[in-house]
Amino acid sequence: MDDEPEEDTMRVHAISALCAVLLATAGASATEDVAARLERVEAAQQSLEHRLDELAKGIDDVLWSQRVGDVAVVDKIRIYGPPRAKTPNPEAIGAGNHVKFYCYVFTPRGFDGEDRLPLLVLPHGGVHADFTTYHAHIVRELVAQGYVVVAPEYRGSTGYGKEFYELIDYGGREVDDCLAARDWAVDNHPRVDGERVGIVGWSHGGLIVLMSLFDHPESYQCGFAGVPVSDLVLRMGYLTQDYRDLYEAEYHLGASANENLGEYKRRSPVWNVAKLERPLRIHTNTGDEDVNFIEVEHLIQALKAAGKDFEYEVSEVPGGHSFDRLDTPEAWAARREIYRFLARYLDPPRPEVELGVSATGVAAP
């Protein structure tokens, strides 16, 4: 939920459950308490799921060069953001240290004549997810225009183990991690023009875009938010308890929206619209099965009520939550509008690029 593409995981879950049971029950005495054994099974399965995420991440990292290496130099760096939001033991050695995380960096090939290039920060979606080659076609389109792209694997991302997963701070310090990625690129990448920086994201990534523009307007010239999570209070009402559990976990917010309304509002873009100062474009789809249209509709109404100048487009096309990220004519048309918006404020060297399938059979560009 919250954006990442659906996958056929039933077989993996079945194998995981079986392995977890075997691991948990190996050597268990016949008299062991059933509840204790069940707890061991659950802990073993959780551990195995994190290991599978790490394996999937390693495989996908290899694919990045294969998918976009012809149009971009691909690198993966490790930097740091603010300290963790919750510290179990403030007196422990290392308590208060900065959180270290990875970022993908895509530098366009073929722009040797350009001294500096614009930068786009591209946070991934998903409550707990990661930046995968699901984004490869979009990265290709962006680097073809001359954008350097930095994609932070902010705290709470999957593929880096249980401890990093439980550092999640939805709508909070993950936004600061994205700012840290932006600042690293501006300060350290010799091709980046610090005066031409934008931020782009969908779903949970769209929420990060909005909160970034609201909280750090001096750092971004513009932003695009696609099907953005907009109102966590409303969202907790129409989704299931399994989803709410991700927020109510002790290592995360540790309370429901009913128990701590103010905290959920603080992390919701719709309750922060008065802070918008930068150009913003929003896309939504009435058939969105993940971020219900009513959420984004509420955001649009709030921005209008606050007298804010922004762009938005409400679509009624197939594709649901992913409607403008697919490889379809409707999606290509929608992304052309996104790229035109970004080009007005970031001035990429080649704003007009071909979208679709090239004569060679490879996705253009």
Blueprint (SSEs and pairs):
Elements: H1 10-25, H2 34-68, E1 72-83, E2 98-108, E3 117-121, H3 136-145, E4 148-152, H4 162-165, H5 173-188, E5 192-202, H6 204-215, E6 222-226, H7 232-238, H8 241-248, H9 261-266, E7 280-285, H10 293-305, E8 311-315, H11 329-346, E9 356-357, E10 363-364
Helix pairs in contact: 1-2, 5-6
How would you describe what is shown here?
This protein is α/β, with parallel strands linked by helices. The chain has one domain: Rossmann fold. The protein is built from eleven helices and ten strands. The chain has helices at 10-25, 34-68, 136-145, 162-165, 173-188, 204-215, 232-238, 241-248, 261-266, 293-305, 329-346, and strands at 72-83, 98-108, 117-121, 148-152, 192-202, 222-226, 280-285, 311-315, 356-357, 363-364. An eight-stranded mixed β-sheet has the order 1-2-4-3-5-6-7-8, with helices on both faces. The chain has a two-stranded antiparallel sheet with strand order 9-10. Helix 1 crosses helix 2 (34-68) and helix 5 (173-188) crosses helix 6 (204-215). The longest helix is centred in the N-terminal third of the chain and has 35 residues, at 34-68. It is globular.
